[in-house]
Design brief:
Oligomer: single chain
Order of helices and strands: HHHHHEE
Shape: elongated
Helix content: 40-55%
Strand order of the largest sheet: 1-2
Strand content: 5-15%
Number of strands: 2
Largest sheet: 2 strands, antiparallel
Structural class: mainly alpha
Length: 139
């Protein structure tokens, strides 16, 4: 695996990222820019573009950090399926877990290679039998 080299960020860029992911700003970039000390004339979209990789990495880390909470909420819904909002909670839990990298099992995950026999109607008094072997699920 190729390891990405982390680039050096300025003190203001680090502050911006820290504020962006704080309870204080709750992800609002304009407020994070202001609290980090950037001048009013600095374009927030340019700032975001310049820190795109760092923002995405922190977002993934934040989602991974939310996975345990989602897991325990899932257990709570399983214990109390009739609670108000259980269906909506399950949707939100599913989204968080999927985005954190905990994927749903694929329906075909436990199936081996598919094989089948196809019987075709007789043609001129003879019957043709074809055996199909579908190896497309192997990789």
């Amino acid at each position: 695996m190729v390891e990405k080299k982390k680039r050096d960020l300025t003190e203001m860029q680090v502050k911006f990222l820290n504020y962006l992911f704080s309870e204080e700003t709750k992800g609002r970039p304009q407020l994070a820019k202001k609290l980090a000390g950037y001048a009013d004339g600095v374009n927030v979209y340019s700032l975001i573009a310049s820190l795109k990789e760092e923002i995405l990495e922190r977002t993934k880390e934040a989602m991974a950090g939310s996975a345990p909470l989602a897991y325990f909420n899932l257990l709570d819904v399983l214990d109390n399926p009739s609670q108000a909002g259980a269906a909506n909670a399950l949707k939100a839990i599913s989204e968080i877990l999927n985005r954190a990298g905990v994927k749903e099992r694929e329906a075909d995950e436990n199936k081996g290679p598919m094989s089948g026999i196809v019987l075709l109607p007789p043609k001129n008094g003879t019957m043709k039998i074809e055996i199909l072997d579908d190896d497309s699920n192997e990789g």
